[in-house]
Amino acid sequence: MMQALPEDARQAQQLLQPLSSDLAASYFHEVVGNLGETVEVRLASLEKGRGVFATKDFAEEDLIFKEPPLVGAQHTSNRANALVCSHCFSFIGSIGIQIAHRLLSRRDAEPVDVNPDYLRSLWSGVAELPYSNRFPLRTLVTCLGGCTDSIYCSEECAAANWAAHHQLLCCGRRAQPSSVMPPAETEQQQRRSSFEAFRESRERLQTQGLHSLTPPIRREPPNFDKADAIRLFREHADETNDAFHIAAQVVAGTLLRADELLINNSTPGSTGSSRERSWAALQHAWRPYAAAWKAPWWECVAIPEDVTDAHAFRSDLRELASDSLELLKAFLYDERFPGLFHLDVYGSIVGMFELNNLDLFVASPVEDYFELCHGEDSSLSAEEQHLTQLTTRPLLDALGKAYDAACEGSAFYALQSCCNHSCAPSAYAFKRAHIDTDGSAVVLAKRSIACGEEVCLSYIDEDAPFHERRAALADYGFVCACEKCAAEAAAPGKAAA
Fold first, then answer.
1. What is the pLDDT of residue 270?
2. How many domains are contained in the chain?
3. What percent of the chain has pLDDT above 70?
4. How many CA atoms lie within 13 A of 366 on its CB side?
């Protein structure tokens, strides 16, 4: 007789099953409805699965859809280059703050030929760069929980991120019950002290030449064990794979949605015991990720060319994911939803980012500022540029070739992840200058698209030779059968290549 699976393994098996066609249709109807209903998601073919199809005609360069990420995070290595909102990923502060942030956060040994006191005055807002008011950025807003790891461009973004997942991932002093905080402290005083803590943390890190926004561990948090566990998880993710940060957002967000359904008693078909209702709530809350293409991270990641033992490499990745999960469970585990904390589920969440490979990119306004001050087509007069460059030239020289460093990270987009690949794509993901200034995915028509036609993107360089495209797509686990590939495969000598 076969032994029954443990509860977490049984739930994990079911969570990793593909979403039924009815539930998928219902979910994507909600997603599309929120974005304007210019497309629909339906079965493309048995081989390709779901795809995105136009519900109207599009001309070349038309906007097909613009979609905010479900979850996302700036790359750890990019934090020194761009100070952005932790929710929408817009650049924040001011041009002066952005430049000071980069130069004060540098870790390389190359000296910066700019007065550090002047940089700190830019960072604090005491000094202002000439003509920087032509590139206004939104004011920095701090975390509702009081942590210095997350910052925002508005109260709305701070509240949205808190509601989505951050309330379970915040190690700030207001995120947890506190006997330290005076009960009479007002929200305005709390937010002011939080802003001061953020500024002091950044100044301390800049003085030390560190690039991470993570503050040193404090010994006075009201719930030290949980706050410390959160920091240990973050440090591990920073050092190993920053996709673990986004995986934590997926888990935390799913927990919050499931809990809300239970509190409101609004889970479809939620009858029976408490255990059955919890399971129904988890399944409903998991829908966005049940609909995604995923596989365990250690199975789907491409093997680097210098790795000689693939089995050992994949085993190491599995162990790394297991270590991350244990650190996450230390502060987030919920016994009502054991399947969500199974290694197969956690590994598949990380694998989801590997397979969908959706980059987050936001161009820097600093590039536009230096184009104004130093560009040949500037709207400034020659005299205005000359006077301005007395201030800006040392800053530009100190920043070097990477003066225009963008915000870069990874994210998961429900709709864009449904777009199938073609080596002759009908659409492309592209940020329009001065229009798309946050972390949303923007998909434009590469050519005219008729109503009912599938909207396809290229996952790779579609201009690469046939054999290179086929090799690149092997990492995604399929062989492209688009018209371009079919024609080139049939050409003499191509199939052998």
1. 60
2. 1
3. 86
4. 31
Backbone angles phi, psi at 303, to 5 degrees: -80, 125
Average pLDDT over residues 457-475: 90
Question: What SS3 class is residue 457?
Answer: strand
Inside any domain, residue 113:
yes
Q: How far apart are the C-alpha atoms of 357 and 430, rounded to whole Å?
A: 15
- 296-314 pLDDT, tens per residue? 999 988 888 899 999 999 9
CB count in 10 Å sphere of residue 27: 18
Q: Is residue 32 part of a domain?
A: no
Q: Which domain holds residue 152?
A: 71-219
- Going by C-beta distance under 8 Å and a sequence separation of 6 or more, which residues neighbour residue 78? 405, 407, 408, 409
Whether residue 98 lies inside any domain: the answer is: yes
Amino acid at 26: S
Which phi and psi (to 5°) does residue 408 adopt? -130, 140
pTM: 0.86
Cα–Cα distance for residue pair 286/257, rounded to 1 Å: 9
Burial (0-12, 13-18, 19+ Cβ within 10 Å), 295: middle
Task: Extract the tokens encoding 240.
Answer: 């190993």
> For 82-111, how does the pLDDT look when each residue is reduced to its tens digit (9 = 90+)?
999 999 999 999 999 999 999 998 766 566
* 170-189 residue pLDDT tens: 998 766 543 323 333 444 44
Q: Is the residue at 295 inside a domain?
A: no
Instruction: Find all residues with CB under 8 Å of 287, minimum gap 6, and list them.
Output: 19, 23, 27
CB 236 within 8 A of CB 323: yes
